[in-house]
Amino acid sequence: MLMAGDDIILYAQDRFPTLRQGLGLDFSVKEQIPIEAAYAYIEAKHTLVLKGDGPSSLQKAVKQVAEVKELCARRKPVELSSFDPYVKNLIEVNPSLEYQIRNPMYGVILARQVRLEGKSEIMSNPDEVDVMIKEDLQNLVLNKYYAPDLIVAGNNNIVAPAAMRPDGLCTYSQFFSEGKIFGSRIVPDIAFGIGLVCFFFALDWIRLGTLPWAQVFSDALQLPIVK
């Protein structure tokens, strides 16, 4: 069994309840969530360290998000025309460059504050954070389909997928893909609020599919799958 991610997973508990419901609101106990049930993964950091490869580093956070998004890319895609996971819609929808499927995994890095290195001072200049984080992301992200879709780096800096328009301005979207750039913005004191808007913007798009119940049942009874 493949697993990825050890931080915060947002999933559809109403459709895919786990077997450990007695936990109540004790979020400190880790659970295993099937990829078909997951909306988003949040790699949360008290302090995000831009340089190095330690447990609080940007490099580590990008790697964690990429592993989760790559794993969730294995789930059956929900087509753009699908309005119900069990109903085939015969209406054709022209796919856009923005959204190829209805159930992409949304990956987030959320940090309360930022350091340049492990023991350096907390970075208070948002312009410096902006320059450094853009520079580092270009070197750390190998596949933009698995890149973080949102980075909140303290109170003043965000990064989200963007496309450059002919007039030189950026248009922002929810999910990263090839052709997108890291659209970093300095947003004094409202980065967490804007991040929340981006988060709900993405969740509004996502429509989860189904769990492979036949596969689960057949595996449990060691039976061949009947299609």
Describe the structure.
- With 227 residues, the protein is an alpha/beta fold.
- It has one domain (8-221).
- It has helices at residues 58-72, 126-140, 191-205, 213-221; strands at residues 8-11, 38-49, 106-115, 150-153, 157-164, 170-172, 181-186.
- Strands 1, 2, 3, 4, 5, 6 and 7 form a seven-stranded mixed sheet that branches.
- Strand 2, helix 1 (58-72) and strand 3 (106-115) form a beta-alpha-beta unit.
Which labels suit this protein?
alpha/beta; seven-stranded mixed beta sheet; 4 helices; 24% helix
Compute the number of structural domains.
Answer: 1
Number of continuous helical runs: 4
Number of strands: 7
* End-to-end gap: 23 Å
Mean pLDDT, all residues: 86
Radius of gyration: 19 Å
The share of residues in extended strands comes to 15-25%
Write a brief caption for the model.
The chain has 227 residues and is an alpha/beta fold.
